[in-house]
Design a protein that fits this description.
Layout: H1 2-27, E1 31-43, E2 46-51, E3 54-59, E4 63-65, H2 71-81, E5 85-92, E6 101-102, E7 105-113, E8 118-119, H3 120-126, E9 131-133, H4 142-166, H5 184-188, H6 198-215, E10 223-226, E11 229-235, E12 238-239, E13 244-246, E14 249-250, E15 257-259, H7 270-276, E16 280-286, E17 295-296, E18 299-307, E19 312-313, H8 314-320, E20 339-355, E21 358-362, E22 373-377, H9 388-399, E23 403-410, E24 418-419, E25 422-430, E26 435-436, H10 437-445
Parallel strand pairs: 3-7, 15-18, 22-25
Antiparallel strand pairs: 1-2, 1-5, 2-3, 4-9, 5-7, 6-7, 7-8, 10-20, 11-14, 11-16, 12-13, 13-15, 16-18, 17-18, 18-19, 20-21, 20-23, 21-22, 23-25, 24-25, 25-26
Amino acid sequence: MKKRKNYLQILFAIIFLLGIHATIMSQLGPTIATSGVWQGISSFQVVQAKIDDKIERVCLPKIQFEDEIDQQMLKQSVKEGIPTQNAVFQLYHDGLGRPKKENGMLYASDVYLKDLKMTYTAYLRRAGYKFEISRTPAYEDKELLRGVLYSDHITTRLAEIEKQGKGEDDKKPAIPRNISTMRVTTIYDVLPKGVIPPRIRKQQEEIARRIAELKNRPYETEIVQIDPLRWASGRMGLIREDGVISGANVEGQKPELVILPPEQPGWLTPKMIGELDGQPCEFVLHRYTNGLEVIQNSRYLVRDIYFSKWKLSWEEWLAKHGVEYVEPDLLPDFASGTIALEVKLVSGKFNSMRAPVLCDIDFNKPNKLVGKNECFRVFPPDPRPDNFIQFANRFNELFKGKEADVSILVCPDGQPYTEIGQRRARRIYFPEFKATLDMAQNQVMTGKIR
């Protein structure tokens, strides 16, 4: 009887522990964050990684591009733009906290790249690709898995054929130049859709280049949505009782600003003026319905100010001094919702990088969007170089005079979109290097372009 009682106690203890374990596991989400090393991609769908000192292949949910892409070009872009670095892999698990592994692969929802401070999919979007990501994990998407595994088989088989063929190349007789050796069946029947074989890729690019020249169409169009308000980093200047702010620094410039002042007379004291002067802050600028920033009497209208050091808004700062805040009016031509901008591509020649967020481009044929020389606002280098002046001098030395395709933002009324009077480039692309500005900057920083 005593033995039976002990058995029951042990059984209840086991059930209790299993219950606790099940409860803990139920608190886990579908993925677990796992540290590792990003090593590259074998396709846009499959990442090569080192996790727990093992070389692993990590498959992502289906990435469905809006347009057909050159996968080899994408792979080269990722290879050049994402160097080997520490990363966090959001791995799907088996319900017990162990990474799920099937078909020789792990499965992840995305990968966070620590050096670039962004996810892999965010990098692809920043590189200009448009796509949707399936919410179904790759191991549940049988069609995707068949494609990935089939592609792996073909890649392996082609590598074997290429290896075998290398020794036989010298034995082959010379082929007359007017006879094509390409057999359509061996290209399109074997390779997955969208993959352009290396041996015809150069011809494909040449054909595309000639068609573009024939069409003589310098613009590519896509839609960008912007908010009615824009946050601009800077430092406060000297404020007057009428709300005019002079000497402020806004993203490296010193425009005159104006904010709606409180109604009570004598609200501003010399102490308050001194307290604000030089404070790091975010200026919240209002936009017109066409996307341009609101200007009143040659001054940029500031809707609000956030003082980053104090963690206070304009209204909160006034309340701290016992001053009542006045809510600004929303005039009919002020934007109240998102504004759709176009992106138009104009070709020119790179002149110089003048500041972390400014680039000079020269144009042979001025038009309504650009003059002979324009200064464009761009994203700053990421990561930031330790010595920007030295880095900029080196970059300008390498890229000055190089062909550059500039994707500029255009307002709904056809005017170039500007920020504090400067045109904005969504991206700058160097055809010779097959790299965007941020990729080229990264390659110069890492010594890949000398």
